[in-house]
Amino acid sequence: MWAVALKSTGALVGQCGLNPVEGKGPEVEVAYHFGSAAWNNGYATEAVAAVLDYVFRSEMLDSVIAIVMPENIGSRRVAEKSGMRPAGTGTYYGISDFKT
């Protein structure tokens, strides 16, 4: 995970990066966490897009997923705005019906 800070002030607003799903893979997820004060400013979308650009430009991975709680519309929109598309649902981290 990388820290996400505002360019103007250096204030930490969240984090974004890659994790093997459930700590073991083989799937790799892009994860992002931001405090509510940072929501609706485009920070998460910008960070996710940068991570995905880096991953695919460097040919580090062939695929990356985002795991989103069905009711978390904001997180789903971040993934979509970053170029990701829904692939279905699955059980991850012991919770069923995650959107991937």
Please tell me about this protein's structure.
- With 100 residues, the chain is α+β, with helices and mostly antiparallel strands.
- Helices cover 24% and strands 29% of the residues.
- It has 2 helices and 5 strands.
- The chain has helices at 43-57, 73-81; strands at residues 2-5, 12-20, 28-34, 89-92, 95-99.
- Strands 1-2-3 form a 3-stranded antiparallel beta sheet, covered by helices on one side. A two-stranded antiparallel sheet has the order 4-5.
- A hairpin with a 2-residue loop joins strand 4 (89-92) and strand 5 (95-99).
- Helix 1 (43-57) crosses helix 2.
- It is globular, with a radius of gyration of 13 Å.
Task: Tell me the layout of helices and strands.
Layout: E1 2-5, E2 12-20, E3 28-34, H1 43-57, H2 73-81, E4 89-92, E5 95-99
Antiparallel strand pairs: 1-2, 2-3, 4-5
The total count of strands amounts to 5
Rounded to the nearest angstrom, the radius of gyration is 13 Å
Q: How many H/I helical runs?
A: 2
How would you spell out the order of helices and strands?
EEEHHEE
Low-confidence stretches: none
Strand content: 25-35%
Keyphrases for this structure?
two-stranded antiparallel ribbon; 2 helices; alpha+beta; 100 residues; three-stranded antiparallel sheet
Gist?
The chain has 100 residues and is α+β, with helices and mostly antiparallel strands. It has two helices and five strands, in the order E-E-E-H-H-E-E.
